[in-house]
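Dear Dr. V.,

Thank you for agreeing to look over these. As mentioned in my earlier message, I'm a first-year student in the group and I'm still getting used to reading structure tokens, so any feedback on how I've presented them would be very welcome. I ran two proteins. I've put each sequence directly above its structure. The first is here:
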Amino acid sequence: MVEPVIEVEVVYAAVDRQVLRVTSVAEGTTVRAALMASGIDAEFPELDLKSCPLGIFGKVIADPDARRVQEGDRIEIYRPLLADPKEVRRLRAAKAAEAKARNQ
């Protein structure tokens, strides 16, 4: 018996470009396996597909080796943050407070 095939999207946004791939996989395929089947590593050899953080439609997947994809899922590959967003906001607020104090 042939397993049903579903389509999922795999997306990655590098600093300089974005790629979206539609990939056909067997129903019951895991998120990580669908990612590996997409062939996106050929375009981005610097990606470590075996350990990179992944999400589906903006929600981080805790265990992509166990979570099964569903028809139409968009698997997102996340890049590491270059700066902690909380720290950036704190520095911006401190700079604004300093500028306000100088203008008074």
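The second protein is here, in the same arrangement:
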Amino acid sequence: MTTAQWLGIAISVCTLVAAFATSVRWLVKHYLYELKPNAGSSLKDSVTRLEAKVEILYQMMLNKGRDE
């Protein structure tokens, strides 16, 4: 193989690695964005709302158990 062919292979491999790294970075950035609160539409906000509702239901069950 000539020097030009080796250089072409090296550039191709570097390009593929850079494309893969860029796509992984993009995915991580967008997944982490979902875990930050943003006034109601993120996954974090949904979990927080559900936790609050479960806590209310738990308190209602405790109070009903004491009444009986």
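From my reading of the second output: The helical segments are 3-34, 43-67. The chain has one domain: 3-67. Does that match how you would interpret it?

Kind regards,
E.
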